[in-house]
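Support request, please re-run this one:
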Amino acid sequence: MAIWAIVPAAGVGKRMGTEIPKQYLSICGKTVLQHTLERLGRVGALSGVVLVLHPDDETPVPAGILQSLPVRIARGGHERCHSVLNALKILEPELAPDDWVLVHDAARPCLRPSEVDRLIEAVGKHDVGGVLAAPVADTLKRANNEGEVAGTVDRTALYRALTPQLFRFHILSRALQLAADQNRIVTDDSAAIECLGLSPLIVPGSTDNIKITQESDLLLAEVIMQQQNSQGVEIP
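Re-run finished. Output below.
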């Protein structure tokens, strides 16, 4: 059964506040996107990768960065769901309804390839799919309109959703198309799946699988990569 990865990388860096989109900022001599793609390239179960770029982005994909995996290029849409939908349309001729699609944020360069292997194994027989997620460790507070503490949220059974997230092709396509048709903003693919009344599997993920959202995260990612290397994590 085929497993294709989709990597949305069409952002322009508004939240980051930098002139260069965050996926092209540098960590340890390589761009964030290069690190992300190299790590996906170490996942043996993948059939190929669709890289979603901004319509004006003509940056070439470095040769060999994904080992021998085939690479397709899709163009980003207005929202994240539109970008992933554009990638799914490219894959439609190649995938059967029950084949798998693995969606991973371009801005998560510290992904451990072994975690992707574990996700694939865990959801292999699941009807819907699953997400990597980390249990919430901090105490959560709910605020009122005045910015005061209105209560403490029970964190039992609460998780931070990570990527990659792995879903059946036909289910993800239907969920994202519905979100787009209803102008619903979904912040991850699982949220769209949940709107169909379906329940993806939660697969525990590592807290070092951080998302680059501000400049200080670049330094944190560098520290994480150095630590992973010292631990013998199999990364490029």
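The longest helix spans residues 215-230. The chain has six helices and eleven strands.
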